[in-house]
Amino acid sequence: MRSAKDFFAPLAVGAPAPLREVPARPSRMIHFFDPSNPKMAAKVPQLVGTVDVLLGNLEDAVKAENKEAARAGLVDIAKATDLGEHTQLWTRVNALDSPWALDDLTTLVTEIGDRLDVVMVPKVQGPEDIHYVDRLLAQLEAKAGLTRPVLVHAILETARGVANVEEIAGASPRMQGISLGPADLAADRRMKTTRVGGGHPGYLVRQDPSGDAERAVYQQDLWHYTIARMVDACAMHGIFPYYGPFGDIADTLACEDQFRNAFLLGCVGAWSLHPAQIAIAKTVFSPSAEDVAHARRVRDAMGDGTGAVMLDGKMEDDASLKQCFVVLELAERLSANDPELAELYAGAGEQA
Q: CB burial class (10 A; 0-12, 13-18, 19+) of residue 333?
């Protein structure tokens, strides 16, 4: 058993000290691109400033014969692209049991570690996977002379990973967050769906019978339990939860619904697989002007935060105020990076 104090000591001589708090940078959309695809690579400069996170994908969706080209392409893109202050660079490396993962980490950290914010690790089974990556990153950071640690993001896509999600979330001070990986998780659980994220028309409840009237059907959320458990684990350890991919690119309405469900449960962002999903994530994972205005009204009415008040016929108390502070803190953080939102929320202040 490690002492809690040991978590804040570098795991390699010369490595940067671990962070004591994860930076709360906007990450409403983690936008995936294939660095081995010349067309996608050429569009990267245009995406800078329009997305919170650009993620160079080295794992699934990259063919085996293109793995090395994707890795090299990401290095070239990172060196050639000015990401500015508002767009982070992440990568999803190959799974730890693959023949490419070690070279992914060794190459990326030593060559572009100063530009890389987060390494996303797929198919994390338990805290031992994070411990392995944690130690290896420290050694590579020391070798490269980095002054800040590269953070780690786990993907929850196995039944064992879900069972160990609390231990994964607390496995290292490098942990930035966790994403739901619904497709691989469905296969590992032997779920009978071939979709990538979203619901399924067969997972439903049916209205009770009433004579000969047609009985209404209500589709249920396949991922509610897993997302809620992931959110709790992340909140407990001070890291951030995310919804993963929504594979039906054409169904923007259902994508928005799924993202909003995740947002309401506590997720801070989702993956975007196509430019059409960027605007959806930006809208859904930003509080509305109405919500910000209401939160300010409650804050102003509550005074010192104790007792209770009535607003519009509804009771607001200290628990209401805490909920409002969540909205206001998020609005303030996003406004600092997004002038349009800053203007929108300033108008909400005038309405309040």
A: middle
Question: At 328, which amino acid appears?
Answer: L
Q: Going by C-beta distance under 8 Å and a sequence separation of 6 or more, which residues neighbour residue 277? A: 29, 246, 249, 252, 255, 270
Q: Is the pLDDT score of 58 beyond 90?
A: yes
Q: Which two tokens stand for residue 196?
A: 């990538």
The secondary structure of 17-47, three-state, reads CCCCCCCCCCCCEEEEECCCCHHHHHHHHHH
Cα separation, 21 vs 173, whole angstroms: 8
Structure tokens at 345: 């929320």
The vertex-221 CA angle with 280 and 250, nearest 5°, equals 35
Q: How many Cβ atoms are within 10 Å of 203's Cβ, its own excluded? A: 13
Pairing label, strands 314-317, 308-311: antiparallel
Helix (H, G, I), strand (E, B) or coil at 125: coil
Q: How far apart are CA 352 and CA 312, in angstroms?
A: 13
Given pLDDT bands bounded at 50, 70 and 90, which one contains residue 306?
confident
Q: Which helix (H) or strand (E) holds 198?
A: none
Contact 154, 130 (CB under 8 A): yes
Q: Mapping DSSP to helix (H, G, I), strand (E, B) and coil, where does residue 290 land?
A: helix
The per-residue pLDDT of the chain, averaged, comes to 94
Instruction: Tell me how far apart the alpha carbons of residues 197 and 185 are, in angstroms, rounded to a whole number.
Output: 10
pLDDT value for 349? 62
Helix, strand, coil tally for the chain in percent (to 5)? 45, 15, 40
96-115 per-residue burial string, b: 16 or more CB within 10 A, e: under 16: bebebbebbbebbbebbbee
Tokens of 302: 């509550």
Euclidean distance between CA atoms 187 and 90, whole angstroms: 26
